[in-house]
Amino acid sequence: MKKKLMVVIGAGASIELGMPSVRGVDLLFTEWAKDGYQLANYEDKTLYCYIRDEVNSYYSKNPKQGLCKESNYEEILYVILQLSAALGDDNYSLPMNAFCELKKLPKLKLDAGNKFVSGDDLRQLCYRLVDKLIDEFRERCKVSKESKKIYFQIFENFINQLNSDYDVAFITLNYDDLITQACPHLFTGFDDNGTFYPVSIYERSDWELIYHLHGSVHFDMQGEGLDMHAIKWNADLNSTFSDNSLGRNSQGNSEGISMPTSVIVAGYGKTNQIQRSPFRTYYSRIDEISAKADAFLFLGYGFNDFHLNNSLHTIRRGDRNKPVVIIDWAPDDQDPMQFRYDEWAINLCKTIAVNANEMATKHNKNAAPDIADLKENGEFEVSRNSKCPLSIWYGGFIEACKSYSAIKSELEAGS
Predict the structure, then answer these.
(1) How far apart are CA 392 and CA 406, in angstroms?
(2) Torsion sign (Cα): 301, 306, 308, 311
(3) What are 167-184's pLDDT values in tens digits?
(4) Which residues have C-beta within 8 Å of that of residue 92, sequence separation ≥ 6?
């Protein structure tokens, strides 16, 4: 029987195939916010940029400079929703309003004149950005296979080699359909008519599946009546989609913050956003998939989604010494794991339960590796601890796809 392989896919696995990076999404939001959200007294600055820059300015004041962080678009979306809740004149369900006095926000510049920012303005900004984001991904997915033809063929071969050698469960955090394009037969829980059946997820014992934990370009809200926000699978990206979150009721939560009713989960507060189907059904199976997997492969995952990280706790439970391979990209001057204190490295160690001080190279297990050398030679940074097999590739995703045999060798370590 084939070994079971759990593959977790993050944004880093799609960038070389034409999808936007985290920084790329921020630039898109910067451009899109110019339509209706220009500020009156700040030249060429939008409400989105103002909030992002204020957050980053605050972070820069951290006296421990080594721990200074920089915001990302998902964090800013959540800050916008928090501010929207705090500014709501009739919102008496946000407990922090009892203690916090908000910093005054600048005025918006509109054709009818300048106006103070309201909670509705902030909420509409967030919802507009989320709607435009999924539209952008759909447009890029339509052309990726041709516009990135050489890379896509390498990627397609890699995905199908995985499926040939392993019983694979793909857990993707990306909205794109690149894996589905490469391997159309993967199980999603949706039938041929696009209807989602949770029971089919619960009863499935086979793998050969892909679960879009945070949504997909193929998700569409075509429901009616009391179930008007139901998500269906729309296979035709050239068709008209009905996923306008700006025109739908929000999702409320016990913290008093309203979330968009969207086909994608964007921004922080994901544990609230994934309560809808199919998100919650997919998420309910993650612990089981993790527990049954014989090996783990992370493709471009940033280890920032704690709801997913917490579902991977069985990787090192008991006497499990199942191999973990991480595909990432790093600049040549990046420090090796034992000298890194950034969020990615810290969250990785917590999730995989590995000691960064035990990382080295296969050829010299007594010295910290040089990342540039690892990339040039197509090698991995590896754990010296045989009970916690971990291999990290820093050469980028497409280069990793070209080195399938090397990755497979690491996935077979200890077996």
Answers:
(1) 12
(2) positive
(3) 999 999 999 999 999 999
(4) none
